[in-house]
């Protein structure tokens, strides 16, 4: 679906995106992860044909992005981080207007509004919506024309846990339909949960690219921590998961039924990001 080769871009004389190379398969959820200002949103703008003065190649659905035509957007749905709705119009009026811009038969507006819990606010002006409501509305706008590629920029921004779960489930549902999804985020938990592969982007370059699981496991296996009570109080110890069977103390505690607690932990994707890039996501 996407093939990027030797991609570079600059707003000024200083390079902003430098020599990027990656591909995204059909039906894959691919994440761009990095701190603010790393180049994630700029990369997305290149891939949707908004920025065309790049060097190298960026091919989406068989079309070089700088040579895209109007028909290019029939197959792409975009959810920008900030609302692109007309605030004086109602939610339903906005969705009907945007659906009229496409040749494809639109998905039922009432059905989409109900899926994100906005059916009772369909006739309310967007100006009166909360940030979370605007975020959900912006998300379903990207689904209106049933595109084969979704470009989602921080789609869970401003959402409470319940509505965040709703949107995540909808993203996974679109994947089951064979859609390709680009997820731009600095939320490592969302990326770990949703993405088949992720690219760490820092200072306009890809620092690492792999599945979340492989990235995590490449930096060491899980650690098991356990506690027990002795004559002089509570104690704790840890050992690598792979060495569990050779931990004599743990075997004795299990045999004597003296364990107070035991749990395993592994590095998070955020830990791996910091380890690889030396940067945080803040």
Structure description:
- It is a single chain.
- With 282 residues, the protein is of the alpha/beta class.
- It is 29% helix and 28% strand.
- It contains 9 helices and 13 strands.
- The strands form 3 sheets. It has a 6-stranded mixed sheet, sandwiched between helices.
- Helix 5 links the parallel strand 7 and strand 8.
Number of helices: 9
Distance between the termini: 31 Å
Strand/helix succession: EEEHEEEHHHEHEHEEHEEHEH
Give the CA-based shape: globular
| Low-confidence region ranges | none
Mean pLDDT: 91
Largest sheet: 6 strands, mixed
Q: What's the total number of strands?
A: 13
Structural class: alpha/beta
- Kindly report the spatial arrangement of strands forming the biggest sheet: 6-7-8-3-9-10
Rg computed from alpha carbons, rounded to a whole number of angstroms: 23 Å
Task: Give a brief description.
By secondary structure, the protein is α/β, with parallel strands linked by helices. Helices cover 29% and strands 28% of the residues.
Notable characteristics:
282 residues, six-stranded mixed sheet, four-stranded antiparallel sheet, 29% helix, globular
Could you give the topology of this structure?
Elements: E1 2-9, E2 17-24, E3 29-33, H1 40-47, E4 55-60, E5 63-64, E6 76-79, H2 91-99, H3 109-115, H4 131-143, E7 149-153, H5 161-176, E8 180-185, H6 188-194, E9 197-202, E10 205-210, H7 212-217, E11 223-230, E12 233-240, H8 248-255, E13 259-265, H9 269-277
Parallel strand pairs: 3-8, 3-9, 6-7, 7-8
Antiparallel strand pairs: 1-2, 1-4, 4-5, 9-10, 11-12, 11-13
């Amino acid at each position: 679906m996407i093939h990027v080769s030797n991609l570079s871009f600059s707003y000024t004389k200083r390079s902003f995106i430098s020599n990027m190379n990656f591909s995204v398969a059909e039906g894959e959820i691919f994440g761009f992860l990095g701190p603010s200002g790393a180049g994630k949103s700029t990369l997305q703008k290149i891939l949707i044909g908004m920025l065309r003065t790049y060097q190298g190649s960026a091919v989406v659905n068989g079309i070089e992005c700088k040579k895209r035509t109007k028909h290019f957007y029939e197959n792409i749905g975009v959810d920008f981080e900030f609302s692109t709705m007309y605030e004086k119009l109602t939610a339903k009026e906005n969705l009907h207007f945007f659906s009229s811009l496409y040749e494809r038969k639109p998905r039922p507006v009432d059905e989409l509004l109900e899926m994100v819990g906005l059916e009772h606010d369909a006739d309310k002006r967007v100006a009166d919506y909360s940030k979370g409501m605007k975020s959900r509305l912006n998300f379903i706008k990207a689904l209106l024309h049933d595109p084969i590629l979704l470009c989602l920029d921080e789609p869970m921004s401003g959402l409470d846990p319940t509505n965040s779960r709703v949107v995540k489930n909808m993203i996974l549902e679109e994947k089951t339909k064979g859609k390709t999804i680009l997820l731009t985020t600095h939320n490592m938990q969302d990326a770990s949960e949703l993405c088949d592969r992720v690219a760490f982007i820092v200072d306009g370059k890809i620092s690492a690219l792999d599945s979340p699981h492989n990235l995590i496991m490449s930096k060491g296996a899980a650690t098991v921590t356990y506690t027990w009570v002795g004559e002089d109080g509570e104690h704790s110890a840890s050992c690598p998961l792979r060495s569990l069977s050779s931990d004599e103390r743990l075997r004795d505690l299990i045999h004597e039924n003296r364990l107070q607690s035991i749990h395993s932990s592994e590095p998070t994707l955020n830990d791996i990001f910091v380890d690889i890039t030396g940067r945080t996501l803040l």
